[in-house]
Fold this protein.
Amino acid sequence: MKFDIKEEDMIIKPYNTEGPIYIREQKGFFQRIRRNLGWLLMLTFIAIPWIQYNGQQAVLLDVATQTFTIFGLTLLPQDFMILALLFMVGAFALFFVTNWLGRVWCGYTCPQTIWMLMFSWVEQRIEGTRNQRIKLDKSQWTLSTWRKKITKHSAWIVISILTATSFMAYFIPAKSLYMEMLTFEWSGITGFWVFLFAFCTYGNAGFLREKMCTIACPYSRFQAVMFDKDTLLVTYDSERGENRGPRKRKADPKELNLGDCVDCNLCVEVCPAGIDIRNGLQYECINCGLCIDACDDTMNKFGYEKGLIKYASEKQMEGGKTNPFRLKLVGYGALTALLIISMFAWMLQRTPIEASVLRDRNALYRVNYEGLVENPYTLTIINKTQQALHYTIAIEGLPGATLSSPSSTLIQPGVMKRVPVTVTADGYDIERKVSKLQFIVTAQEDASITITKDSQFYKN
């Protein structure tokens, strides 16, 4: 069996582009996995901003101060490398899973899919089953129709606003954000972003739905590049299923010259993307397994063996075995593991302090009334920890030099502070016109928090 879409398959449209898709609610093994996983991910998404760590919000992406706080780890623009590594880990992990299990990310964990199915669940509870919704949309508008539509859209709007507010809690402290929401004290910028994200959620999950997956999402376009003959995909067994056709439950399909497919069309009605998996692999398929649950239910009712539609590779459908150790899959996995190791190695050698030394460009040096040479500097110190610390400054590498600086400098967590200092030395004790020296910045509370910065000392 080949996964390519044949030219004759295009006569029967593999994707419903005409009108809305009315999804039939389906129960089954894969639906339970998706629903439980969806609830877990949604509750995690809502709960994370409320988690406290060391008396502060554990995860806070403060764009205004360009400070990202993640469970005691404070990331600043200087820590861009770890964010780049994190995105690379996510990308290669996605490639790995796609080569192994196809578009399961889209079917089970993608926010668009989760919210789309949640909106669909609300719609079904208010407007009824698939057939009832179709009948409702085709009937004339009555008081009952208006009531159902207003209730549905009101529920969608509430979910959208709560979703947007939960998302903004990653960027604004959650307690103050929700308190301001309850007291109607949101600032203009906060209200703008909340309602913008709410509008996007309402539009994407309520109206665009599968169009986001099939048209707007670039992943659906290039994911086929990561497939091979060993990739597990939702597959229809055409040799067993054809010829398809309706029949009575107790009828012998062999006598009717029919396959196991009873042509009930349930696999199409439950599909969030509105495709017919029996037409072969289509890029719109999100590998969610709903059609498997629907088909297995039908097979049970007719007393046939399950698995007419199943997760299988092209090799399996041709009678072979899937190779779990193929080069592409192992390569994606190895690169993902290597990037994870690199990210943790970078984090281990990362110091919770950042400093830089700037010289006074207007005066490289000056001679004071005692005839000593002075060099002014400005030290910029960033406290990348989660607690306020007192920092001391010392110098090395310039014998006989003295440092004029504050005895200690208090810097709040995630704050950058500029500290002017002056290095003084006797010019007769220094042979070179330009000498090297080091500034050592150390936290009084923890001597392991220290950093050394090189600079130069000039004399006449």
About this structure: The chain has 15 helices and 16 strands. The longest strand covers residues 373-383. Residues 1-15 have pLDDT under 50 and may be disordered.
